[in-house]
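User: Structure please.
Assistant: Input sequence and predicted structure:
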Amino acid sequence: MGDLPEALSQYEKSHELQKEHLPPNHPDSANYYNCIGEVQRIMGHYSESLYFHGRALSIRTLALPPNHPYLAASHNNIGLVYQKMHEYSKALRSYQQALEIKKITLPPNHPSLAASYNNSASVYYENGDYLEALSWYKRALNIQTKALPPNHPELATSYNNIGLVYKMMREYSKALLSFERSLEIRKLALHQNHPDVATCYNNIGAVYCNRNEYSKALTSYKKSLEIRKIALSPNHPKLANSYHTIASLYDHMGDYSEALSYYEKSLEIKRTVFSPNDSKLVTSYNSVGAMYCKMGEYSKALSSYQQALEIMEMTLPSNHPDLSASYNSIGSVYRSMNEYSNALLYYEKYVEISEETLSPSHPSMVSCYNNIGLMYYSMGDHLKTLSFYEKGLQVSYEALPSNHPDVAALCNNIGSVYKSMREYSKALQYYEKYLEISQGTHSPNHLSMVSTYNDIGSVYYDTGEYSKALSWYQRTLEIQTKALPPNHVDLATSYDRIGSVYYKMGKHTEALSSYEQCLEIRKIAIPSNHPDLATTCNDIGSLCRSRGEYSKALLYFEKVLEISQETLPLNDLSLTTSYNNIGWLYKNRGEYLKALPYYEKDLEICLTTHGANHPDLAASYNEIGSIHRNIGEYTKALSYYEKGLKISQDALPPNHPDLATSYSNIGSMYYKMGQFLKARLSYERALEIRKIAIPPNQSELAASYRNIGMVYESMSKYSEALSYYTMSHDILKKLLPASQPHIATLKKSIDNVKKKL
């Protein structure tokens, strides 16, 4: 506040002395009242200011001619106070009275008339009447253009004001031209590092940001910051504002670590300038919390949000809307941490304040219902989620215009719930409502639209309509490529989705290209041990495996395992996928001894996590059994196959096809060990199950007949062997071309048996 209280005291003392020598309505008294009123206004004491300016006006009205310039000044001062009090109609009336006097006493192009036009324009601007504001600012500029030199600073101010109006009207090209003209004048009229030049760069950056031209916005914002670093003290609040603005841009760009760095610089300055409990710190704490939340560092996010809350609880009434917003933020963090009881506690405080201070159909209630719905969605309770979303939607229909963004957002959220419930037609219905509303306020290629384009793409993906899914995902990518930096993480996600669609469509070359583009971006944009990198490597590994490129697949699966081992507990169940994938590759390359440790590690984790009788263990035992069979360790193989069978018998229906596979594997081990009777019994049990579980004339039946035939042949029971070989051959003839090697092998076995009869 500087020396304002002292100035006020001096004015009041001088006025008391003056009253002893002057009559009550002397014009000099009006001057003192005017000065006291101005100091009170600057100090934010608007009622007191209004009182003293009113006294000054009363005296001048009595003492001066009706069109005296001092009367215009008094009306103008009163208008300034009313504007500060947001009493815009009274402010306009006072400004108009000042203007009428000036029109009578001044030439038509006098700069003081331009000042009056600017005052009225600023009221219209603050009140959201941008067309009127533009009209009045242009009148002011018209006078200034005639009355002032071409590079006068006041011209720059007018161009700046007009630019601000155009920005609010979303006429960004016109706004940019006005701001650039203002910058051009200020560069000539002021020195290069003047704070007003910094303001121009800041405004230009804001327009580029609104146009999604983030790299240009960043350049302008950083120019503004560099000037303020030179022109202002190190702890000046405007420096804090610059850091905050740049942080917000990095946030939009998805570069959360950079955003956090700038938010923290802004907070550091504010901590130096303001007291620990000053409300000006709240925004910074909340912004830092939001970044930690987006980075998944929820404990740090919680700490920042709670620091903001502590200040607000000390400085605001218990039912203040800002407190309710803070409770909402903390509830959302707890929801992300899956601490739903804590989340509910804060959401209930949020709702309590909202219901106490707002009407049931107030627009803010939409946010209440939406956030509680989100929490239930996170808990997987889709019916409760729908209940709250639909309440929110009902309020939004009553309280908001039909094309309001909150209406669109709720339609989108309801669509997501129906998608999770696999009610895809309903999901599409709500997504289409969202698009219909949003396209009234945004162009179809606006960055805000891509989330729903992705949701629609995922519906078509889930329903197997891959061409439609691809179209929506590619539309998203096209928008992101224009709006985002080339290594933005969202671009990687889009390439990943497109790769998945191509994979489903069997277009492996295109899928691989998309996955590799995804991987290149993620290598740059996220830490080297980030789980998303593992996901991409796993996708590429799976694709290479399906193309028979086992060496390449192995490299990617090993990278997945490396990342997973760094980021997960040693016995985390997610690791089993990597162990299985690597084991499978080594097995199929014939490197059985290398495969075995990976399958054993998989089994170890499953036993630790699930216990000894979990159904998933059957697959692990069978894989290890197959490795021992391939390296000729039949006794060990038999032991693992039998363990697998026991678990499957407990977990599956008695005639499940997987049981047939287990019996067949066990039969093959007895056969290899020369225990033909046991082999035959196992093979026959497999056959019995397959006759019940699968349609006739399937290759699995043919295999069972052939296996039993082999046992009978080994037991020298050639007639029985011929019978089973023939049944196997009859099935395969219907399934395979005559030139197929399996048929030739079986035909040879039949001929050999016939010779032995």
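The chain has a mean pLDDT of 92.
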